[in-house]
Amino acid sequence: MIKTRTWIILFAALLAAAALFWWLLGRRSADGTTVQIIHDGQVIREIDLAGVKEAYEFAWEDAAGNRNLIRVEPGRIRVTEANCPDRICVEHGWLSRELPPIVCLPHRLMIQWKEAAP
Amino acid sequence: MSSDPKNRISLPLRLTTDAMLTALALGIWFLEAQLPPLVPVPGIKLGLSNIVTLFALFRLGPADAAAVLLTRVLLASLFGGQAVSLLFSLCGGLLAFLVMWPARRIVTDRQIWVAGILGALAHNTGQILAARLIIGQSAIFAYLPVLAVSGILTGLFTGICAQEAVRRLRFPPRFS
Lengths: 118, 176
Fold this sequence. Notes:
The complex is a heterodimer. Chain A is of the alpha+beta class.
């Protein structure tokens, strides 16, 4: 049997490592201002949020009628409406640098920060 | 190591207990779905119904735990009504079970929380893998550290709940 103390140390180390990775991933995208909208693994649109002067909305729609309404404001982007069943993408709110990308799994749609060129 | 009481109880009692646990897990799952999200990150939840799976695993055995888990997942997505969520729950639930089952052999009755954490981590990994398949983008793995942190915390909580349930509840139950 493994001692309880060993388990605690193991999970504490894993927790620290995961938190560190989380922080590093957030830092990596920290300087870019361009976001990518990706459908089915393909980049379908790129927007430089720093270049947005006025807020606008546009709809993404595929042949099957799957639809997401995307709102772009100076410096930020979010999904405001979707006809997917779970609406997790809408509840996600604005795309943040600390949290993972906005994902609409039922529509295979994703909004993420573009990684800065090395 | 937990004792294996499944040989001590009659088949009807075992079946009844499994059915009762499934109903309990389904009720807990439904209640949890009504709660507001814990944190504003999609995909993070307590996973309270895993308490029931852990209880079944440690008190009854792997076959009973698998039956309770599968039935709960199928019924839950039937009520929830989404094919996508069925795929997700299945991937997460099955991977969690495949990790917790052998974990049962290496933890004591006072370390059930360890199985809880391992199960939660496996569950989250399974869901990420399913999401990777659906979305076709490796960037989805950016969720991994977030889900590892949440898996350790939520797994610890549900694991402790299961441990206390196993310790306190009289078993086999007496229906009188």
